[in-house]
Amino acid sequence: MVNDERTLIRGELVRFDASDGLVLHGFMAGTKGSNTCVLYVHGMGGNFYSGRLVGSLEQGCLREGFGFLSINTRGHDGESRGGFEGGGRKPIRMGTRFERFEDSKYDIDGAVKFARGCGFSKIVLVGHSTGCQKILYYQRSRKSRFVKALVFLAPDDDYNLNRKMLGRRFAGTVSMARRMIVNGKGWTYAERLPFSPRRFLSVADPNRIEARLFNYEGALKDFSSVRIPMLAAFGTADEGAVKPVHEYLDMLKHATSSRAFRAVLIDGATHSFRGEERETVRSVMAWLMEIAVK
Question: What pairs with residue 40 in β-bridges?
Fold first, then answer.
């Protein structure tokens, strides 16, 4: 993999099985001399290799002596093919359009198992954007004893963001999506929807787990239930934020039950931390070294 300075980093493309049998792919580097692997989960429509953030994180991990594994979830890219379910030969449809959020726990299951098979006894889950919801949902559901810390990079509020973007059309759009599902069109495109109806309702229905996890108008009970060390970072120029991001961080600090929670504000950084990737990664690495996760 190559970072933003075109520095070659040695590693290997890997293939692993999600715990429900789906074949997924990723990139692993730094498998020698460390007990700890930083496992990176991309955001909605992303993948294991795109963006400067993942390259900077990879470089930071190797500099500090951590292993690094960046994975595709079954929701990688907008729409894709190439995954194989249960050892079969026929590729299945994947990508954000066809993703069931709850299935992400199977993807992370498989990645954690793969990392352990490479000799790592401690896992740090790092999520960006929707990857934050996925790693929180995973640890809330699985309570994995191998996962020692969670890092949330831009854990924005997708439910209230959609409400803001759609405005007066929000309630009608939700109703339309529900009708389409009843009519057997849950995975089709519609002009008024940002995703397929099923994917849209996953973030637009406050009773759904994905919409609830970082709903900053809610009680953040799922977030509060996780007690392992956690870091949350926002850029002050995050274009996906509905409120000033310092308010998000204050809410997380108030809600957390973590024994070691750190809130980080990156001045001038966007949702993707564009231009401030190194500063973001330095903050993450310093915290990981401070909590002695190695």
Answer: 70, 126
Sign, CA dihedral 20-22-24-28, equals positive
The boundaries of every CATH 3.40.50.1820 domain in the chain are 12-157+224-290
Check whether 4 has a pLDDT greater than 60. no
Say whether domain 12-157+224-290 belongs to CATH 3.40.50.1820: yes
pLDDT digits (tens, 9 = 90+) for 138-182: 999 999 999 999 999 999 999 999 999 999 999 999 999 999 999
Residue carrying structure tokens 């504000």: 265
Contact between 201 and 174 under an 8 Å Cβ cutoff? The reply is: yes
Number of Cβ within 10 Å of residue 142's Cβ equals: 15
3-state DSSP assignment of residue 144: coil
C-beta of residue 197 within 8 angstroms of C-beta of residue 182: no
Task: Check: pTM over 0.90? Answer yes or no.
Answer: yes
Give the C-alpha distances (Å, rounded to integers) separating 155 from 147, 187, 238, 269.
19, 26, 10, 14
For residue 61, what are its two tokens? 């991990």
